[in-house]
UniProtKB/TrEMBL annotation:
Keywords: 2Fe-2S, Cell membrane, Disulfide bond, Electron transport, Iron, Iron-sulfur, Membrane, Metal-binding, Translocase, Transmembrane, Transmembrane helix, Transport. It catalyses: a quinol + 2 Fe(III)-[cytochrome c](out) = a quinone + 2 Fe(II)-[cytochrome c](out) + 2 H(+)(out). This is Ubiquinol-cytochrome c reductase iron-sulfur subunit. It comes from Cupriavidus campinensis. The Rieske protein is a high potential 2Fe-2S protein. Its EC number is 7.1.1.8. SUPFAM superfamilies: ISP domain. It holds the Pfam family UCR_Fe-S_N. Belongs to the Rieske iron-sulfur protein family. Its cofactor is [2Fe-2S] cluster. PROSITE patterns: RIESKE, TAT. The keyword Cell membrane applies. The lineage of its organism: Bacteria, Pseudomonadati, Pseudomonadota, Betaproteobacteria, Burkholderiales.
Length: 205
């Protein structure tokens, strides 16, 4: 066999080996890449945890509160009585941040930057995340005026962990461990009896 024929045979063998190696490597690369990329896709559970939540408030009577879960957190919906709303005029001067200028974990929606921290067309309904801005405990309440020594003559909420108190708009009283008011999540009314939490005119949170 001539030297030239030997070179051709060697080159042909090397070419076949290189092609097989490249194909195997490419397949292996794809096999590795697919699971790796899939880890970036949110799970169904994660999607559900962040999705807006609807709540029917039609049966909520004045003075009653209901709790719904949004993003794994309790969201309070309190239908305030005229007396409850009137108490906010007094506590306005007693709370640390009456206009909710300093946010906790989320920006306060513009429609809640007021004394009642609610939408103007539904002032009676308070919608807040029931998580204290100090160390994440869940406050108790609402307590009526004079029903809790730590609140004194003011109605509101009390955090049992370190004694922070909040008025009936979720605003923290002065000189308490909690540094910020309770969060007001984005929300909007779908009808007079149904609201959606986690979404408003600006889109989803």
């Amino acid at each position: 066999m001539s030297d030239q024929q030997n070179v051709k045979n060697v080159d042909k063998g090397r070419r076949n080996w290189l092609i097989a190696t490249s194909v195997a490597g490419g397949v292996g690369g794809v096999a590795v890449a697919v699971p790796f990329v899939s880890t970036f896709a949110p799970s169904e559970k994660a999607k559900a945890a962040g999705a807006p939540v609807e709540a029917d408030v039609g049966g909520l009577k004045p003075g009653e509160m209901m709790t719904v879960e949004w993003r794994g957190k309790p969201v309070w919906i309190l239908r305030r009585t005229p007396e409850m709303l009137a108490s906010l005029q007094k506590t306005d001067s007693e709370v640390a941040d009456p206009k909710s200028a300093v946010p906790f974990t989320m920006e306060t929606p513009d429609y809640a930057k007021n004394e009642t921290r609610s939408r103007a067309e539904h002032k009676d309904l308070l919608v807040v995340v029931g998580i204290c801005s100090h160390l994440g405990c869940s406050p108790s309440g609402p307590f009526a005026s004079g029903a809790n020594p730590q609140l004194g003559a003011d109605p509101g909420f009390l955090c049992p962990c370190h004694g922070s108190t909040f008025d009936l708009a979720g605003r923290v009283f002065k000189n308490k461990p909690a540094p910020q008011n309770l969060d007001v999540p984005p929300y909007q009314f779908l009808s007079d009896t149904k609201i959606v939490i986690g979404k408003d005119e600006k889109g989803e949170a």
